[in-house]
Amino acid sequence: MERTNSTPVTEFILTGIPYPPKLRTFLFLFFLVIYTLTQMGNLIIFLTVCIDPQLHARPMYIFLGALSVIDMGISSIIVPRLIMNFTPGIKPISFGGCVAQLYFYHFLGSTQCFLYTLMAYDRYLAICRPLHYPVLMTSKMCCLMVTGAWVAGSIHGAIQAILTFRLPYCGPNQVDYFFCDIPAVLRLACADTTVNEQVTFVDIGVVVATCFSLILLSYIYIIRAILRIRTADGRQRAFSTCGAHVTVVTIYYVPCAFVYLRPEANSPLDGAAALFPTAITPFLNPLIYTLRNQEVKLALKRMVGDRTTMSKN
Q1: Which residues form the G-protein coupled receptors family 1 profile domain (predicted)?
Q2: Which fold has domain 11-308?
Q3: Residues 156 and 123: beta-carbon distance below 8 Å
């Protein structure tokens, strides 16, 4: 709907997530701890993959290192601004800051979708085509695939940011959300947003549906291959290599589908669902991959053991 006020908006006010005032201090400390642990956990995994010679040349762990960087980025883009909403006073975000937040969130979020798909393909090759795996999934090929995911993600983020902010914004400037995201920002536009909503729905829908379909197809083949393994121990090891990936894909894709793949979505649950890909999943990823991956745990022990030895000497 067109608005008569022609004064351009220079800043936005993020309302944050609704909460009882009595819980302000608790929520401030809760998300501060979540953010701190997210950065520490992902940084430890990234450094472990880079430093440990048994990990940094293997495709599976190159993907894991890239995922840790993305998780640190998404958390840093969203959570500090969320924490600020639990402090007294109004803290607006500039128009340029809102553009940057939306761009980087969709850039890193779509890159994460592509990365999850590549990780599923890596597991498919490792389990279904083990003899061809060393030839098809070399370190060089893995790095090229990760680079391609970053480039595709940056293009996707740029498309979404350009489409959203090509529209005029002339007031009001209160974003009913805890960060600058497409559905919440479009509601403030002083122009018809039908085309934007349709393009956004199709664009994000294509990315999410394609990535999820490829992941699902990969795991259909993986499960078929695992069920053909004769020994229970062999099946257990094969399932364990995929368990962490299946877990993080589930807790990432389900909330994203709920937020973006519903036309004219404006539910109070959107904010709660959006907390998963922005705050909860980046926090859980290091725990899931560390607790379920024996090689990562052994690499961490080697790092701690080496530092202990150096300190004693």
Answers
A1: 41-289
A2: Rhopdopsin 7-helix transmembrane proteins (1.20.1070)
A3: no
